[in-house]
Design brief:
Strand content: over 45%
Strand order of the largest sheet: 4-5-11-10-7
Length: about 325
Amino acid sequence: VTAASPQFINDNLFDGTIQFFTVTGDGKKKGYWELTEDVFYNDFIFANDSDGDYPLSFSQASGHNLSTLSFVNATPISARIQIQPRNAHVGNHTIFLIVEDRKKDYDIVQIFVRVANVNNPPRIVGAWPSDTTPSVMENETQEFLFNYTDSDPDIRIGEDSLNVVWFKNGINQTGYQNQSMFSFSPGFCEAGIYNITLLVTDTHGEYDSFTWILTVNNSNRPPRINTSNPLPKRIDMTEDISLLGFINISEHMYDPDMQQCSGSNRDVLQYSVYGNTHVNVSINSSTLLVDFVPDPDWYGNETIRFRLEDGYDFVLSDNITLVVAGVPD
């Protein structure tokens, strides 16, 4: 008498959503499983043996890469099959399931497995600077970098492409489209707080983002002497005669941050004069015109200097000699 081999029983696996196998014209048993990435499947597979050579032993042949597939004995006539395919398993696979009886007679079913992809959102896996609140001085450069290599596993299987957009204070920096680096070089007059946001999206609308709050600190430029229009080295006056609005001090001494900047980036300037005793020198705070008023009945020479401060630094003019000529009484 020839011993009978155990036989897999064709039932519906995985809650009835997949037919275990069919018998083809050549008598071989083949199954077709349509699985979905990240879904957990759990069921039992049964077999019988007409000779009663129990318990039956269930196993899977090696050589496939469905690493999450578990196929182990559960009862003398059944095995538990569990699988939760991951992104790395997306695609087509072939597996062989085996059942043996105690006499080593066996049955084999060949399973063709297709794992359907489920979109995975992109993920930013390294952003620099790691400090989300960096700072930089005006007229220096701050670079922002990130890495998304293999961060969206759908790229590997050709089902995704990524789009990279950089924003500065909510404005799309179009020159850096799909670039892994954004470079910001704030000029003078650009001190302030900036929101730098990186947005990575995939073709399915999933996204990841990273935001830095960048502080650009003031890089002060000190006041300057206008070398192309210097102050006169000597001013001649006459006793008891004033020179009103004789010069505009801003034409001779200036501050770049005041001239070129606006708003909070402008320096607050303070003009002053020292060295005078008998000639009252006053600077109009609005017009910056300078009046020279000698004391009554006084004549002689005085040396003065103008000073310009911007709150951070200052500059002094060269010596200016005031010569007040006397007149006969």
